[in-house]
Amino acid sequence: MIRLIIFLFLTIMKNILILFAASVFLYSCGTAHPVRISKTTTYKKTSVGTKHANVKVNSDRNNNTQAGNILSDAEKYLGAPYKPGGMTSSGFDCSGFVNTVFAENDIKLTRRSSDQAKEGREVSIREVKHGDLLFFATAGGKRVSHVGIVHTITNDGEIKFIHASTSKGVIISSLDETYWDKAFLFARRVL
């Protein structure tokens, strides 16, 4: 009888642990709390669209040495796996990746993407530059759950960003991709 009770208890605990791990995976590096900025600042979800005709092209990231250094450091982690709570080349979550890359350049950021979304100043998507941060609501709504760093702005205005994705680790993605276009919330400049 005692063995049966212990077996049931361990089975229940195993299931709870699996549910917890799944919830961490689903929320990626997000937050369960909405982003709260000052009362005078309001962020609303906008559609970036597939063509960015109004985006100012700034294709030479070397114009800003600090941004160039950040992007060079970010690129060395391309292919690193995703790991919830990770902050090293053995595995990153999105905010851990951003935190690590900026820290390597002596810029201290908070750890969570929802807190990083309060740093620096808001930048219109039409004004983004290399090294700016892009924030996303990957679970829908307006809660920040993902962050990436502006990597490339093409001649036709396409914005690409480097980030730690849950499925492929550290990669470069485009705001032209439907998934990211729909999840995009806002951009901020911390440099």
Structural key phrases:
191 residues, single chain, six-stranded antiparallel beta sheet, two-stranded antiparallel ribbon, 5 helices, elongated, alpha+beta
What is shown here, in short?
This protein has helices at residues 2-27, 65-75, 94-103, 113-116, 178-183; strands at 87-88, 91-92, 121-123, 133-136, 146-153, 159-165, 169-174, 184-189.
Task: Explain the overall architecture.
This protein is of the alpha+beta class and 191 residues long. It is 30% helix and 20% strand. It has 5 helices and 8 strands, in the order H-H-E-E-H-H-E-E-E-E-E-H-E. The strands form 2 sheets. Strands 3-8-4-5-6-7 form a 6-stranded antiparallel sheet. It has a two-stranded antiparallel sheet with strand order 1-2. A hairpin with a 3-residue loop joins strand 6 and strand 7. Helix 2 crosses helix 3. About 17% of the residues have low confidence.
